[in-house]
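May I ask you for just one protein sequence along with its backbone structure tokens in two labelled lines?

_____
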Amino acid sequence: MSARGGAVAREGGRSSPVRLSKHASATIGGMGAQRVLVVDDEPMVRDVLARYLSLDGFQVTQAADGPAALERIAEHAPDLVVLDLMLPEIDGYEVLRQLRASAPTPVIMLTARGEETDRIVGLELGADDYITKPFSPREVVARVRAVLRRASEVPPTDGVLEFDDIRIDQGRRDVTVRGELVATTRKEFDLLSFLASSPGTTFSRLQLLEEVWDFAWDGDSSTVTVHIRRLREKVEIDPSAPQRIITVWGVGYRFEP
């Protein structure tokens, strides 16, 4: 659900001035600027985010509803989408579904504080991150940079992990289970690859957030739980009785070779 009337947090009791970063001064208006699409039906949210992102060196386009978002994506493929889930005409879930069917473009969801169901559904559809309203525009810029950095990292070119019926090719980013190629989202692959790279080692949810998502979130580990469940559905013979991705109760998860 969208948090109306106050979606953008004020800092220090009043709106903070936006200062041009050193990075922005070198890239703003340049050919190398990364493109970010901001999709929200609240004009204030779009304008504030566009201003902060532009001043940090991004090329920003905006959309106020689902159809406009899909049109912008088709016209000029963005490097990242900041997407509100509650949109008129076509909601953010459907925008995310259609985007995921055609491209691995990173997506950061905007959700109302406390709407855990919204976040879980969005994560299950393949969103890379979420931010709850009200938010700090500076936090959004930091999250955008973190997600883009992770998306642009070059994976190993020759790492192959094999465990009987599971083969993980880190260079090709392919997962083969019992001889069949399995489709995974970017974060599903990263999580499986990370766990399988240290078989038998138990990692807490916080450690997985820091290692796979590159930073610790605000105490909500539901994204790890969602991705673990989806991985089990893809690699386990019986997801309800997993033999590979094991839950260590009260601690976290480990991969069994």
Observations:
- The radius of gyration is 19 Å.
- Residues 22-152 form a domain with the Rossmann fold fold (CATH 3.40.50.2300).
- The mean pLDDT is 83.
